[in-house]
Specification:
This protein starts with a helix and ends with a helix. The protein is of the alpha/beta class. It has a seven-stranded mixed β-sheet. It has 15 helices and twelve strands. Helices cover 43% and strands 18% of the residues. The protein folds into two domains: 194 residues, Transcription Regulator spoIIAA (2-Layer Sandwich), CATH 3.30.750; 57 residues, no CATH class.
Length: 340
């Protein structure tokens, strides 16, 4: 976001939150997108103070490694933040350099120590399987660092190829810029993911959702609301909301958001009725525990359920339906059958 828009953006953000009519008690808060950890303490407090029912059960802020110090950590805690998600991606210096990241493994270790010293011990570490130049050895190095730092939550994302990034566009075009030619094969990425599952489980950090792993009792309460189709409200550009019936999305760009809030008092771009019947499957099946379909749901989706059970991608247990380990790797193919 251009610096020239920052003041107006914050003004619009505070106005959007202040105008919201709360129909339920917010239990969790998540500050993500962009670099919320770069906000100064006063600006952060001015935003969070508008959200009622503090202290919340969970309040997370996404942070880039190297952007944390003792003063900032203390300010976050005073504002109600009790959980930090670090966008680490990798602990390999070589891989980080290829993606333009400036931190090192030692930077992350220092950040974790700083947060814990301030009283924030709920920490998530993000890793990406499939970065350019990634090898079995470098992936093991990252997992070794996770074991050393002992966070209570880890997210492991398999590299996604789409047009939203320079690397993704280059891969789709079959080019070699941005180290696209050094992206591991799909089979190797799957190998990395499965190795992470095994290593994290051995550390006591179990998978509870396709990309998320936690020690017992440390699952992300905020993200669980998404997967269980509970209501949530988003503020700011490209924020999404769900009230239990309708799904809304704000305009994507900061400039359009500022314009919408200043001229119309709203930045809502779209609102559509949710198909909860289908969504319960392709959202709920992301969770390791799966879902407990109602009789009408078993009947409606009987054909794909039985087919995937026969193929070893889904399994039934005590009335629950859940992905098998193989099903997790082919989850997009499974989910597509439940989108009507």
């Amino acid at each position: 976001m251009p610096r020239s828009l920052e003041a107006q953006y914050m003004e619009g953000l505070r106005a959007e939150i202040a105008r919201h009519a709360w129909r339920w008690t917010p239990e969790t808060v998540f500050l993500g997108g962009g670099t919320p950890s770069q906000m100064d303490a006063e600006a952060l407090e001015s935003v969070l103070s508008l959200i009622p029912w503090k202290p919340w059960r969970e309040a997370t802020i996404e942070a880039a490694p190297g952007s944390i110090d003792a003063e900032k950590s203390a300010a976050w805690l005073r504002s109600g933040i009790n959980r930090v998600s670090l966008g680490v991606q990798s602990f390999s210096t070589r891989e980080l350099a290829r993606t333009g990241r400036r931190h090192t493994a030692e930077t992350v270790a220092k950040d974790v120590a700083t947060l814990r010293a301030a009283g924030i011990d709920r920490i998530n570490i993000d890793l990406i399987a499939g970065l350019p130049g990634q090898t079995h050895e470098s992936w093991v190095e990252s997992l070794d660092w996770v074991e050393r730092l002992a966070p209570d939550h880890v997210s492991v994302y398999m590299l996604e190829v789409d047009e939203d990034s320079r690397l993704g566009r280059e891969l789709l075009a079959g080019g070699s810029k941005y180290s696209a030619s050094e992206v591991p094969s799909d089979d190797l990425i799957v190998e990395f993911y499965e190795l992470a599952c095994d290593r994290l489980e051995a550390m006591g950090i179990a998978r509870y959702e396709i990309s998320n792993f936690a020690r017992p009792g440390h699952e992300s309460l905020h993200n669980m609301k998404y997967w269980k189709l509970e209501p949530y409200v988003g503020f700011g550009s490209d924020a999404h909301s769900f009230d239990g019936d309708l799904r809304g999305q704000n305009v994507e760009s900061a400039a359009d958001y500022v314009r919408g809030m200043s001229e119309n008092g709203t930045a809502l771009a779209d609102s559509v009725k949710a198909d909860l019947f289908s969504e319960r499957f392709f959202v709920g099946l992301r969770m390791t525990e799966g879902i407990r379909p109602e009789p009408a749901e078993w009947q409606r989706f009987e054909e794909p359920i039985q087919r995937f059970v026969g193929e070893g991608l889904l399994e039934q247990h005590d009335g629950f339906l859940r992905l098998t380990r193989q099903g997790v790797l082919l989850s997009n193919e499974v989910f597509a059958e439940f989108v009507l």
